[in-house]
Amino acid sequence: MNNIVLRKEVQERLDEIKEADIVVGIPSYNNAPTIGHVVRAVQAGLAKYFPYKKAVLVNSDGGSTDGTMEAVQNETIEDFQSILITHRVGPFIKITTPYHGVPGKGSAFRTIFGIAKTLNAKACAVVDSDLRSITPEWIDLLLSPVIDGGYDYVAPYYLRHKYDGTITNSIIYPLTRALYGKRIRQPIGGDFGFSGELASFYLTKDVWDTDVARYGIDIWMTTTAIANNFKVCQSFLGAKIHDAKEPSADLSEMLHQVVGSAFDLMETYEDIWKAVRISERVPTFGFQFSVGLEPVSVNLDRMIDKFKLGAKELCSVWEVFVPKKVLDFLCEVKELSRDDFRIPDTLWAEIIYAFAIACHKKLLNKEHLLKSLTPLYLGRTASFVMETWDSSAAEVEERIEKLCNSFENKKDFLLKNWDK
User: What are residue 233's DSSP bridge partners?
Assistant: First the structure.
């Protein structure tokens, strides 16, 4: 199975099962408090929407010590009438297995892809183990476009608090859209549907010792699907409520790995993104509605202080590759008061492209270079928060749309300087 190591008892279980129509994977690491709800939602969704399909749930675990795997095995739905299921419900097959390889979500996904291939699954989905808002309908919305619509990749489309998912909103969504031309709103959402064919394709790629094996798996899956012309869409899932992090929390490692993976993919698919000039909508499934969202606390002073400290200590790093006019602006803005502190969209797009070009040209050690992005990201996030403090969710989406347009309009800067 593409060098994926499985315990003997798991391999024997797969030999017994032989084949499956659907595989649903749940990667986990110490998620005992939340994973039971996720397992029940998956089981109810499979029973309600795919009662005649042979389905297997795979929990791929990173060495939990809090009873996560036991929680998966013990969780079950006793009363199917309570969720309006009156037909016969067949046995629910569950496999729990520790994954091997580099610690991280990507290694967990690799094991799920391998089991899907072994079972010759036609459709697959993965969902996060810390979800508190997942419902049985998510399983339908992630799998039906594959089973009934012939799509290969289903990205999630959630409602999130305006300050949740700031790496997505400020970097990954506008960058991915400008590069590859597909408006997939949550390219690193964490919950996806995909065909068995695409799962097998993922396994052929030699990326499992890189950042893809850690936090980079989500952007890698999305980009790989788009760049290789798999049929992509997105499904509206409602609210995503999970263990959200305050934007100024220690996100440096995640930022480094996610953005680093996006930049690595620019090398892999250089010929493809260079040819893309406009972006287009992708088909979106699911009934869209408004929903209340849990607030995300924001510490503006801490973000601005970290930006100012970075601007003081890292100017000698940034001046190697950041355009002088941008650097001059950053030096000016660090002297401004909190009320006047702003980093405009066009400037932010130019900064991200400058980092991508510097990585491409290997102007500095990649890890040091990407970690120097953290204070800039915090400064940009603080600027965005102050600008949208009184904005509704719809108004914030309009602001993100303007940011995306800036990334698309500034793409000429990227193209002009990439090989210069």
Answer: 154
